[in-house]
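Researcher: Structure prediction, please.
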Amino acid sequence: MSRELSMAARREITKKFAREYAKAGKEEKGRLLDELVHATGWTRDHARRAIRAANARKGAARDQQRKPRERKYSYDALVVLQEVWRLSGQPSGKYFAAIMDDTLERLVRFRELGKVEQRVTPEVLDELRSMSAATIDRYLKPHKDAASRSRSRARSRPTSCALRSRRAPAWTPR
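Model: Predicted structure follows.
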């Protein structure tokens, strides 16, 4: 039955059960959980968590605003990350994380960071070294997308002469 329900329907059912659940005694709560599990196909743990979340929020779930997460890394670290990524040949996050220590050490030693040189501090270097591959990919995603878009526009198109030579002639000699 759960496959037939949309998420909006599940939220609505959960909100209805949550109102009853708040007023119910222990045995009644167990029965309500069983009914919710049967209606939605969720596990009891998930149903219990959903009921608690539905009780806590005011209004519809779709109207709730998520609190933005604080950035873990400084702005300077992100600027330096972009420059180091560009200078190292724009590798994927997994490979970039593996070569980060050596690459940073060489770029700093040989003063290859150019404009971002003044942003490089021991704290920034520690932040960059502590980044995971997934975090690197997440922070570089806009730059990777922009780079791939600019490359895709640079493709050449065949000229009209090339197109004409590919077409079959309008008439054939006998």
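Model: The chain has a mean pLDDT of 87.
Researcher: Thanks, that helps.
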